[in-house]
Design a protein that fits this description.
By secondary structure, the chain is mainly α. The protein has one domain: Up-down Bundle (Growth Hormone, Chain: A), CATH 1.20.1250. It is built from 16 helices and no strands. Helix 2 runs antiparallel to helix 3, helix 7 runs antiparallel to helix 10 and helix 7 crosses helix 13. The longest helix has 30 residues. It starts with a helix and ends with a helix.
Length: about 400
């Protein structure tokens, strides 16, 4: 297993951009739950905390594709630093407004501006695609990066919640902004592996979200992201109701550990099943593994359920990125990957907002029902769009065979 992953780093520069990309994307796992923890401590309202976190997640999800579109046209090094700088300054402003009890609208304003955070996961995957396009090595490379994503979610929430609870409420979001700035600076210095800017396809000059099969992926991931956002907020509330708020970070880490292990194994498999069919299976598993949340009545049981539920996460994202690489023109690949991640981000925002409202109104146990419903919706969307994915995949396969 590990030999295969070592081979993908045989290309000069691969270790550098993957490592610095890891630092730069840590804030994705730290920021949302950091905002929830910070505001729930300082304002005492999960509804407000979830809404502000949702504003950040939704803003990031909507702005990121436009940043990635600029990256496809101008290059990573020219776009990432300005975008990251705006995000960092906005995060700092959000923390100051929270500390000095500024009006509530300022929290939403700076959470929205903080959404200028680039999609570093897409930037890293674009570099792997540049190195291994058309090669069997692209699958383990995508798998490795999905594992790295999950590693962020293993240690990120623990660090963010732990710092905010142990030192001062703003500590988690503050560290995430520092990591974002350092990571982007180091990442953009890795110029040798930066993807080349390619001329736009004559057939597609607009946004790639117009591609029907890409919309299927994005909308399905909205529902999957709703699961993630709900689980984040409800886990914090559930842990607090059990008298151990810090335990929420460990519970969410179990969710990520399950995904991490599944991703490592999945990356070594050479499956003959078409990617569109793998996608449908992964979504079905994601829905089924949400159902046991109904029976959770302790932190230990919650951790156990989320561990097994997490095993569908990394494979889903690996297959999704593989489909995007097939469906989207090479000149717009970063934007295409970002739209998929955007769907996830929109869902996280929706899950945070709805989950927070349900917790405040009906209690944390009812909040898990939102995650279960989101799983059912995800499977329904994937089923409705199955034929579109199949046709797009078949067309891409034919095109590559004729080259």
């Amino acid at each position: 297993m590990f030999k295969l992953y070592r081979e993908i780093f045989s290309v000069p520069g691969a270790k550098g951009f993957s490592a610095t990309g890891f630092i730069a994307r840590m804030p994705i796992s730290m920021m949302g739950i950091g905002i929830v923890t910070m505001l729930s401590q300082m304002r005492g309202e999960y509804g407000l905390a979830g809404a502000v976190a949702a504003t950040f997640a939704l803003s990031s999800a909507l702005i990121a594709p436009h940043i990635s579109r600029m990256v496809d046209r101008l290059g990573q090094s020219r776009v990432l630093l300005p975008a990251g700088g705006i995000s960092v300054l906005s995060i700092i402003s959000l923390l100051l407004c929270t500390r000095y009890e500024a009006p509530v609208w300022t929290l939403f304003l700076f959470a929205m501006l903080a959404g200028c955070m680039p999609s570093m996961s897409a930037m890293v995957r674009a570099r792997w695609t540049e190195l291994y396009r058309g090669s069997p090595m692209l699958h383990p490379a995508f798998s490795f990066e999905s594992v790295v994503d999950e590693l962020c979610f293993i240690i990120g929430p623990v660090i963010s919640v732990g710092l905010s609870v142990s030192f001062f409420p703003e500590a988690g979001p503050l560290l995430s902004s520092i990591l974002l700035l350092i990571g982007i600076v180091l990442f953009t210095l890795q110029r040798s592996t930066e993807p080349a800017v390619r001329p736009l396809s004559m057939k597609r000059t607009g946004t790639v979200i117009r591609i029907g099969s890409l919309r299927v992926l994005a909308f399905t991931l909205v529902a999957i992201g709703t699961i993630f956002g709900t689980v984040d907020v409800v886990s914090v509330a559930f842990a607090e109701s059990q008298g151990n708020t810090v335990a929420a970070s460990y519970v969410l880490s179990f969710y990520a550990i399950g995904s991490c292990l599944a991703g490592l194994v999945f990356g070594t498999l050479k499956l003959g099943t078409p990617l569109y069919r793998q996608f449908g299976i992964a979504i079905a598993v994601a829905m089924i593994t949400m159902i046991p949340l109904i029976f959770v009545d302790s932190i230990a049981k919650l951790a156990c359920v989320l561990f097994f539920a997490g095993m569908s996460v990394a494979p889903t994202m690996i297959v999704t990125m593989g489909l995007v690489e097939k469906i989207v023109p090479e000149s717009q690949l970063t934007e295409g990957m970002t739209w998929a991640i955007t769907g996830l981000g929109v869902g996280v925002a929706l899950g945070s907002a709805v989950g927070g409202w349900v917790v405040d109104s009906y209690g944390e146990r009812m909040g898990f029902g939102v995650a279960i419903a989101a799983g059912v919706i995800a499977l329904a969307i994937a089923g409705i769009g199955y034929s579109s994915l199949r046709c797009a995949y078949a067309y891409a396969y034919d095109q590559s065979s004729n080259k």
